[in-house]
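Journal club side-thread
Mid-discussion, someone asked how the predicted structure for our own chain would compare to the paper's figures. Pasting it here so we can look after the session.
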Amino acid sequence: MEQWTQAELEAIAKDPDLYLSIPNLNGMIHESLWIWIVQAGNELYARGYSGTKARWYQAAKREGRGHITVGGVEKDVRFEFPDDPETIDLVDEGYRKKYADSPRLEPVIRSQAREATVRLVPVG
């Protein structure tokens, strides 16, 4: 399994915003959208703010792949959908740590968003 390099993780950690592109149904890459990203261990995660009904989350489930731009890092990724409580709790902690001062923190750590946790795995 591919892993993030330490240099990539350090660059990504400095930037609170991730831009994610996922292919449309026709295979064309959709315009990038902005989402939050967090690190738990040496892995990167994102969540659907509005849960599993978020359009980007549905596209990620359907396509299984996408492209990210964050902190000067451009990378193709594949998506995994962890549901084990330990990982989900670690991701919560990542959000609490990185976005502690944001009024948008609470919705991203509630059960609806927890169900829409996505691991971003580097490809190539």
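Post-session note: Helices lie at 6-13, 55-63, 85-98, 105-109, 111-114.
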